[in-house]
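hey can u check if this looks right to u? its 447 residues, i copy pasted from the old doc so theres a chance i mangled smth
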Amino acid sequence: MIPLRERVKAQHSWFLSGQTRSLRARRQALATLDRFLRAYREPLSASIHVVLGRSENETWQSELVPIHDEIARCRRRLSAWMRPRRRLVWHHGRLCCYEATREPQGVIAIFGNAAWPLRYTLLPAVDALAAGNCVILKPAPGQQAFSDILAAVIAEAFPASYVTVIDGDHQLAERLAAEALSHIVMTGNPVSAARIMRIASRRLTPLTLQLGGKNPVIVCRDADLDQAAHSILQAKRINCGQDCLAPDYCLVDEGIMEAFLERLSWHLRYSTAADSLHDPSYQPALDHEQYLRLRELLPSGRIVWGGRSNDQTRQIELTVLDRVDYNSPIMRQEVFGPILPVLGFDNLAGQVSRLNLLPHPLMAAVFTRRQQDWKLVSKALMAGQICLNSLPASLPLAPSHGAPGQAGHGQYLGHEGFRRFTYERTLVRRFLERPRRGPQARDWYQS
C-alpha cells in the first residue's frame, strides 16, 4: 500500500507534467470514464444493491444517467469554455491587451456520499477532469462492496497518478484533507463538513460543500392539493427521503390543513404497496445508526399515516406526522428519511420571515395558484433553489445549485463546475503608448 502522502505527491507530479491540460487529453479522459462506466454498469449496480438495496434500473436512472449526461455536456462545450477572452484597456496612457484564460488548479479530492455513492462521487469528478485536474476519489465509509468495484474500474481506466480511489474510514478522510490538495469537494452533513473544513483551513484549501438541510415545502390556501400531495410524496420516496434535495417538512395554510392531510393519506393508500416493509425494492436506512435515529423521531407528533418499521431490514414506512411545532425533536435536525412532519401557518409573509431566521435550505418549494404568493416567496426566501408547483423528483437535474450558510457553498455541474475547478490567469501586454506632448502628440491625437 502506497502511503497517502506519496499518492498525493504522485498526482501533483502528473499534473505538473502537463499531461492533463490539452483539450484532447481532457476529452479523452471523459470518453474513457464514459466507456468504462457503461462497460461495468452491471457490477457497479450490483454493488450498490448490496450496500443500499437499490435496484439496477433505479441506479441507472438516478445515478448513472446524470453522470453520462454531464460527460456529454462537458465534451460538447469544453472547447468554448477553454477559449481565452481578450480585451483592450487604456491604462495610464497605454493601450494594454488583456488575455484571460481558465487554468486547472491541480489535485482535486472528492469525498463521496453514502446515500448516492456514484452520483455525488463522479459528477464533480467529471467537471474536475474537464477542467484539466488530477482527481482523488474518497467513497463514503461502510460501503466496502461498492468501494472495491469502483476502485477496480478506476484503476483499469486511468493511471493511479491521474485518477485514483482511496478507501477508508473517517480518520483517513481527515488525513487526506490535511494533505496539500488544490480543492476539496464534499457532499454530506454539516457536522462532518465542519470537521473537514477545520482541517483544510490549516493549508487554506478551498472547499465546495453540498450539505442539504431542512428543505421546506409551502402549501398555500389556493394550491392544487392533489398535485401538491403527489409531488411531495414522489420526491420523498426518492431513496426513501435520504437525499439532500428531499422535502424535509411541509408548511400548510391552517385553512386547508385537514384537507391536505386527507389527500396525503389518499395518495399513500392507493399509490403504494399494501405492505411496503416486505417490498424488496423499498429502500432501507443507510445503516443501523441511521435507522435508530429515525425510529426515535417517530414520536415527535401524531402519526397520520405509517409509523411501522422492520428491525431486520432497517425499513421504515413512509410516515406523515402532524401536531408538530418548531420545538419538536424532528424539527431540530435534518430528517433525511421517510418521515414527513406537517406544520400549519396563518400568514405567508410572517412564515417566510421566520424561515429566513433558520439555517437556509438547499431547496424549497411552494404550491400556489396566486402570482403574488409566488413573487413573495421567490423574492424574500433565502434558499439555493425554489420550485413552483413541482419538486426536483419530477424535474431534470439543475445546471447548478448552491445555498448560503449550513446548506454548503460553491457550485458545480456544467460551466459552473469548469469554473469552480479552474482559476483565471490574466496575461497583460502593452500594446501602444500614447505620446504625452510635442508635435508627435498633436499628430497622434489628430489621427
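The mean pLDDT is 88.
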